[in-house]
Amino acid sequence: MLSFIAQRVLKGVIVLLAIVVLNFVLIRLAPGDPAVVMAGEAGASDQVFVKQLREKFGLDKPLPEQLFIYVKGIVTLDLGFSFRQQAPVSKLILERLPATLLLTLTAFAISLTLGILFGTCAARFAGTWLDTAVTIFALIFYAMPLFWVALMGILLFSVTVDWLPSFGYETVGGNYTGFARVIDVAKHLIMPAMTLGLFFMATYTRMTRASMLEVKRLDFVKTARAKGLSDAVIQRRHVLRNALLPVVTLAGVHSGTLIGGAVITETVFAWPGIGRLMYDALLQRDYNLLLGVFVICSAMVLIFNLITDLVYRLVDPRIEFAS
Amino acid sequence: MPKRVLLGLLLACGLTASALAQEPKTGGVINAVIQPEPPGLMLAMIQNGPTQMVSGNIFEGLLRYGPKLEPQPELAESWSVSEDAKTYTFRLRKGVTWHDGKPFTSADVLFSVEMLKQTHARARNNLGQVDKVEAPDDTTVVFTLKQPFGPFLGIFEVGSMPMVPKHLYEGTDWKTNPYNNAPVGTGPFMFKEWQKGSFIRLVRNPNYYEKGKPHLDEIYWQIIPDAAARSVAFETGKVDVLPGGSVENFDVPRLSKLKDTCVTGAGWEFFSPLAWLWLNNRQGPLADKRVRQAILYAIDRDFAKDVIWNGLGKVATGPSASTIRFYTDDVPKYPYDPAKAKALLKEAGYKGEKIRLLPLAYGETWQRWGEAVKQNLQDVGMNIETIATDVAGGNQKIGDWDYDIAFTYLYQYGDPALGVGRNYVSSAIAKGQVFNNVEGYSNPEIDKLFADGAVATPDAKRKEIYEKAQKILVEDVPVAWMLELQFPTITHCKVKNLITTAIGVNDGFKDAWLDK
């Protein structure tokens, strides 16, 4: 198992470097010059100022040289300096990463738990009103755009009934500590995490239901019934466990999409994570910051995928780790 | 007679009560929106709007400007100008200290001038006419100019020339100076905390030189990236101040009608944002003056003001906004007249060549405006293709002159020499940069008028020159002027006296108080 992990980590590092080079080139292909953006923000764009900015940030150097400097930095774990925020990229990302991890992991946990639960219920009571209701709700959440769900959530829970805060990570000026702070953050987390999780929950519900119905028809389930096992045991030990494999695969694939979704969720709910940092960096053509966020996101996706592969083994012991 | 006495007494009581009601109250916390999150707060090195808005509370300039752009004391308590208009002497306030307790002196002014020449593009341009700056004593600073420079007294507000603490910056690498992240100024509020992505917290400066000010204890600048979420934050009472441009324009009428909500358009007199369409004078049909004039006749600017901007703003008459110095409306007029536009296009021989239009990617209002202009121009037979880009991509296209028509809006900084000439003089044509003469208009007469206007004395002479320049420009239509924009500041009515100068919320909250 250890050699499997080592091999995957090595492959991951190579993939990561390839992503860095690709992203570096792609960003520079997009029109827009960070020096001009910054000069514009300063309300002045005389030649001297723009030239000064380009020199200051090394943008006057040939592209291959800029790439070499950047990759060299990455190898030594230096993500560079943010043009616009005038701070090291790693510092900016580290400040925001915990909030994004909290949001995405909560959304992931909610979506997977509820998705499997609802999917199991729908499959268990297939053809009944409960199945129809779950399927319809799953379809609705699957079809609704994330930003719209977010805005409707704010309208309902913040403006109309005033149960939940509409923005932020915690109450500004609240100065809560200890358990009171945990509760405060949790209150702020509910809406963004649910918004982000609903789409994925719908996907897992549908996938679990379909997969369970398929497994239920297989011979080994008949055998289990013939052996006289109870329905609950058959569903849990035999049907669900086998039906989970495609759901786990999907969850691994979704790790990247989840971070993409965090960009919108963090923007609407003013959640101070790296999704928003990435969005702002893109608009400002803050190359280093944008690339830095990409590197971290790519690394997170690779780690998620590694975890997915490990979970496979737990769910289905028949799967062997390839050496 | 007794009735008169009674009436007089009642009036007196009423007036006294009214005066008492307006007596500022001390204490309280204001929550205001800041968007986007500023990249930093060191105003001498970063000059974008959000930085100015927050740091205008921390730093100060030598002067402030009233609503009619009249200079008022700030760090300079008085000033005088020599007869030849080349020497400006500022007397600094005594007893002013930086937030770390060190005294503010003329040495700080000298250092700031030198630093800003290197870090602040606009200050560098503004100081171009300065021959030397001297400090004969701790509280006197003398600027000697190479020649008279009409707008000189207009370059000292906090955003244009913030004062920097010499003792913290001299001999350091300015870019990595630790005080960039914890700025130290002389202003009414001190930097306390910045939770990136969430809020910036400023607290009252207890040693502020104006006794009794500021009235507020703290300011929280809340960072809320989504416009709809900002509206909700105001509606639910989580923020008290929405500075101009914080919410989409179509939300302004709805928010204005909410209970205890006050709206003002004041505080933009210095910036005077003017929106126009860049017209690429170099190539294709737009090289012909008649086509450019046709564009102005074809666009229904009143519709844009009334419908797209919800009645906010004013239709522009030319290159100067009506709020800046030496404005005149005695210029050729271009009312909405599609028939005249068609006739001019026919006369110019326009044969349906494709014209690329770049809307401004600043949100929904600007997108709708782009659609309306496209429709107006198509109605008179022009073949318009909309090019969609984000702000950075659009700027690059404009800077590379790779466009035909493009939306923009720019600040005018109170004086034609500071914020108007740069868009029309030939010397400001430089590829790769935006916000200069990107339309490629070149007219030696205009070049001379703007050159003369900047150095002419007295003001009557400048007025004559700039009025002539406005007439010529409006006749030539190098760009199509659209609207003098108005970005209303929306507050809960308990917030009093927030805007007192021509730069509005950018000037800090030192006069503001909460009627709790």
Question: Could you give the topology of this structure?
Answer:
The complex is a heterodimer of chains A (323) and B (516).
Chain A: H1 2-29, H2 34-41, H3 47-56, H4 63-75, H5 89-124, H6 129-143, H7 146-160, H8 178-216, H9 219-227, H10 231-268, H11 274-284, H12 287-315
Helix pairs in contact in A: 1-12, 2-3, 5-6, 5-8, 5-10, 5-12, 6-8, 7-8, 7-10, 8-10, 9-10, 10-11, 10-12, 11-12
Chain B: H1 2-21, E1 29-34, H2 49-55, E2 63-65, E3 71-73, E4 76-81, E5 87-92, H3 106-119, H4 121-126, E6 130-137, E7 140-145, H5 166-169, E8 189-195, E9 199-204, E10 218-223, H6 227-235, E11 241-242, H7 252-256, E12 261-264, E13 274-279, H8 289-298, H9 301-308, E14 314-315, H10 338-348, E15 354-358, H11 364-379, E16 383-386, H12 391-399, E17 405-410, H13 416-419, H14 444-455, H15 459-476, E18 479-484, E19 489-492, E20 495-496, E21 513-514
Parallel strand pairs in B: 1-10, 15-16, 15-17
Antiparallel strand pairs in B: 2-3, 4-5, 5-7, 6-7, 8-9, 9-10, 11-19, 12-19, 13-17, 13-18, 14-18, 20-21
